[in-house]
Amino acid sequence: MATQSSSMHYRGMELLVSYHQHPSVLVRNQLVRLNAGLVRKIAHRVSHQCAEPYEDLEQIGYLGLIRAIERFEPSQGCAFSSFAVPYIRGEMLHFLRDKGSSVKIPRRWRELQTRGERVRETLTQSLGRVPTDTEIAEQLLVSVEEWRQTKLATQNRMPLSLDALVSVQVDTPITLGDTLVDHHYQSLQSLEEERQQLQQALSQLEDKTRAVIESVFFNEIPRKEVAEQIGVSPMTVTRWIKRGIEQLVSGLQPSVTPTES
Asked: pTM for this structure?
C-alpha cells in the first residue's frame, strides 16, 4: 500500500512538473482525476456543515483544484495536497456565501409582522394618524421591544449588494465590497508567506537532511523506503529528520536585534 501511495505521489509530481513547463488540458485533466479523492474528501466534510448537496460542492471543488494546479510551482518544494486544500475549500465557501439567500427570521416574527401590518392599517384609519409602536404592541399583546425587534429583523432581511455605493472619494466610487476584508485572500497570502519562509529555512539545511525531510513530509514517503533509496538505516533517517527539524525551528524563530543600552 505504501509503495502504491509513493508511486502515485511520484506520478503526480511528474505531471505537475510537466504541466508547469508545458500547460495542456490533457495533463491538467490527468491531475484532476489523480486528485479527485481530495476534492471528494473536502466536499464530504463541508456538506455536513451546510444544506447544499454533496454533488454540487464536489463540482465546485474541482474548480478550486484546477486553480491550484494552474498556480502550483513544483520547484518550491511544497506538497501539492497542502497547497490545493485552501483553493478547493475556499471555492466551496465562496459558492455557499454567494448562494446564501436572505437572512432567515423566526416564524413567530414573520407572523407577528403580518399581523402588525394589519393592526397598523386598522389603527391608522381609526386614529386618523400613524400609530406608535406602543399602540401596535398593545393590540398584538406583545412587548414594545419584541415588536421593534420584529420590524428590525424584517428590514434587515435582504442582504445589501456588494456593489452598493458607500461614498465617492476624488471622483472614485467606493462600494461596500471595497470596504470588506477578503479573509480568503488573506489566508492564502499568509500561507504563501509561511511557505516561502519554510522554503528559505529548508535551503539552509544540508542537502541530505533537506532531501530526507522533503521525501518524508512533503512527498509522504515512508522512512523505511527513504532509507532504502539512499542506502542508510531507518535510524539514520530518523536522526537526520530530528536534526533537520531542530535546525528548521531555530531558523524560523524571529530574529531579535539587541537594543543599545
From this structure: 0.40
CB environment 59-72: b (16+ within 10 A), e (fewer): ebbbbbbbebbeeb
Taking the C-alpha atoms of residue 244 and residue 206, their distance in angstroms, rounded to an integer, is 8
Neighbours of 15 (CB within 10 A): 19
Cell readout for 173 is 466610487
Per-residue pLDDT of the chain (261 residues; tens, 9 = 90+): 445 555 666 778 888 888 888 888 999 999 999 999 999 999 998 888 776 788 989 999 999 999 999 998 888 777 888 889 999 998 998 888 766 544 566 778 878 888 999 999 999 999 999 999 999 999 999 999 989 888 887 766 555 555 665 555 555 666 656 665 566 666 777 777 777 887 888 888 888 888 888 888 878 888 889 888 888 898 998 999 898 888 888 877 764 444 443
The residues near 47 (Cβ < 8 Å, ≥ 6 apart) are: 53, 54, 57
